[in-house]
């Protein structure tokens, strides 16, 4: 092997090592979540309860629910994701796993990317799968339900990525849940506005391509930048701890 091929071989080996580490972190988080089923079910039950109780507490009229249904489901999904964010790094912090992840030779932002993807698979994706049933409950038509599911499929990963930054910043602090909400909810507002706006435009028969493209841009930016920000926040939190 000549000197020119050695850097390429090292780069390939490092890429394979990073990919294996991401797969390991992802698989571990999935296994741990299924062992702690209470943390897994709480956001889903909260999502169902909010959507179910809202018509009882406000108005059961069909016209009102058709108009507000998308907003109800989006707000419930947002709060459900927020409810689960405190556990994103908490268990690893408590048992010392998080320090080991920081000391790994692989880039920390890739490991956080894997953890965030696992969080979305366990929280955001089930919410999307439940949405058609709950959409029928609030009298949304088929087209609105399809567009709502698509916006949640694009938007819930954005919620997880942004939430990872807040979870890393508030790690180890007292009243972390309250601080996390204060930090993250303002950043969630654009996603909420465009998510509900897309469904409203679809209900009026307007084109929704621009809305979906903008939400896709949110997802690309969040997936690209949030792991770096969360990695820096984790190092700060661990050094202060």
UniProtKB/TrEMBL annotation:
Compartmental location: Cell inner membrane
GO molecular function terms listed in the Swiss-Prot or TrEMBL record: heme transmembrane transporter activity
GO biological process: cytochrome c biosynthetic process; cytochrome complex assembly
Membrane topology of this protein: Multi-pass membrane protein
InterPro entries documented for this protein: Cyt_c_biogenesis_CcmB, Cyt_c_CcmB_bac
Coiled-coil ranges from the UniProt annotation: none
GO cellular component, one term: plasma membrane
Top-level division of the source organism's lineage: Bacteria
Keywords: Cell inner membrane, Cell membrane, Cytochrome c-type biogenesis, Membrane, Transmembrane, Transmembrane helix, Transport
Segments passing through the bilayer: 40-58, 70-89, 109-133, 145-171, 178-203, 209-234
Keyword Transmembrane helix annotated: yes
Family that this chain belongs to: Belongs to the CcmB/CycW/HelB family.
Function, as annotated: Required for the export of heme to the periplasm for the biogenesis of c-type cytochromes.
NCBIfam families with a match to the protein in the record: ccmB
Protein name as it appears in the record: Heme exporter protein B
Native source organism of the sequence: Marinobacter adhaerens
Organism placement in taxonomy: Bacteria, Pseudomonadati, Pseudomonadota, Gammaproteobacteria, Pseudomonadales
Gene, per the UniProt record: ccmB
